[in-house]
Write a structure and sequence with these properties.
The chain has 333 residues and is of the alpha+beta class. It folds into two domains: 207 residues, no CATH class; 83 residues, no CATH class. Helix content is 42%, strand content 11%. The strands form five sheets. Strands 7-9-8 form a three-stranded antiparallel sheet, with no helix packed on it. The protein has a two-stranded antiparallel ribbon with strand order 1-6. α1 runs antiparallel to α2, α6 packs across α7 and α6 crosses α8. The longest helix has 33 residues. The radius of gyration is 23 Å and the shape is elongated.
Length: 333
């Protein structure tokens, strides 16, 4: 997994025009799903059954998948270079696994579950009427770009992530209006309550899964020789991400990709160092410059960088690549 830096404010020309039009659709779509929930909730509040009867379930609002698929086609494929946002496998391939492209909701929008002692449990929350019901999912975030991640079937479908969303705090749904951090934050729903935005949710819930848009995976995951992935420094977030996404399933494939790229790196280093008589330091710089474009879009980039750092300790290989990518990104901005 790699960190994805995306600032809509830096989009230009036709892409910026497309973004503004898409944002209008997402705002309209969000308002519609919130209103659909409010309407269903109002009907449920009119229920007057006996205390022994179960209160009626509230139908989950439907979302328009075409809206967020448009974001995938226009933005995600370029940002993620056609790779899964979680495991970095190229999408659309079939090799030891099914790789059907999909747009995954980081926070699930229809149902929220966790795994406890090997069993799937559905998360319940207390509604404003005091009744404990299933968490309806974060339906108001269905079209939020920070909640949309391209994902392969291996990461997205059961028994991997699916609707799982483990947190370090408590799962959040409705918040009382007097808890609102600002008048321009969150989304109005029923009287006296609002639905929190992603920033507030992250603060309250403390997600235990890594989001490539908001987290730096290098702070939580490490890759070493033979395609091995581990949590960095015992990071709970890293370990939980590995477990829920079953990232160890790709160890052998990561190993092959690591060895293949390391061979290319070594061959180019030999050429610069011996044939062109560059110093060791200069040769590393030349190889990084030559291979930077290929590695930026490579499958399992994070695993490759981890392996190269192991092979060439003290030469800051991953730092060198990041410096080139950051310089190029700043130039494009």
């Amino acid at each position: 997994m790699i960190r994805i830096y995306f600032d809509p404010g830096k989009l230009t020309d036709d892409v910026a025009d497309w973004w503004r039009a898409w944002q209008k659709k997402t705002s309209k779509g969000r308002d519609e799903v919130i209103q659909a929930w409010v309407t269903a909730r109002s009907k449920a509040r009119q229920w007057h059954g006996s205390d022994k009867d179960a209160p009626p379930e509230i139908p989950k609002p439907k979302v328009d998948a075409e809206i967020y698929r448009a974001f995938k086609r226009k933005i995600l494929e370029e940002l993620f270079h056609g790779k899964c946002g979680y495991c970095e496998s190229f999408m659309g391939q079939k090799e030891d696994r099914v790789m059907i492209p999909d747009t995954e909701h980081f926070r699930p929008v229809r149902l929220v579950t966790v795994v406890n002692n090997g069993k799937t449990e559905t998360i319940h929350v207390v509604y404003e009427d005091g009744v404990n019901r299933e968490h309806p999912g974060y339906f108001w975030l269905a079209y939020d770009w920070q909640n949309l991640v391209p994902a392969c079937d291996g990461c997205n479908k059961s028994p991997a992530k699916a609707n799982h969303f483990p947190v370090g705090g408590d799962h959040v749904f409705l918040r009382q209006a007097n808890q609102r951090p600002g008048v321009d934050r969150g989304f109005d729903c029923i009287d006296g309550y609002y639905l929190p935005d992603i920033e507030e949710l992250n603060h309250l819930e403390e997600p235990l899964l890594l989001n490539p848009f908001t987290d730096d995976p290098e702070e939580h995951l490490t890759f070493s020789e033979f395609g091995i992935i581990e949590s960095k420094g015992g990071s709970e977030k890293g370990q939980t991400t590995i477990h829920y996404l079953n990232l160890e399933r790709l160890t052998e494939r990561r190993k092959r990709i690591q060895f293949d790229f390391a061979y290319r790196y070594r061959s180019n280093f030999t050429n610069f160092h011996r044939e062109e008589e560059q110093s060791i330091e200069e040769a590393h710089g030349s190889v990084v410059e030559k291979l930077s474009c290929d590695l930026e879009k490579a499958e399992y980039r994070a695993a490759i960088l981890g392996y190269l750092d192991e092979l060439y300790k003290g030469f800051r290989i991953s730092d060198r690549f990041h410096e080139i990518w950051n310089k190029a990104q700043n130039a494009r901005s």
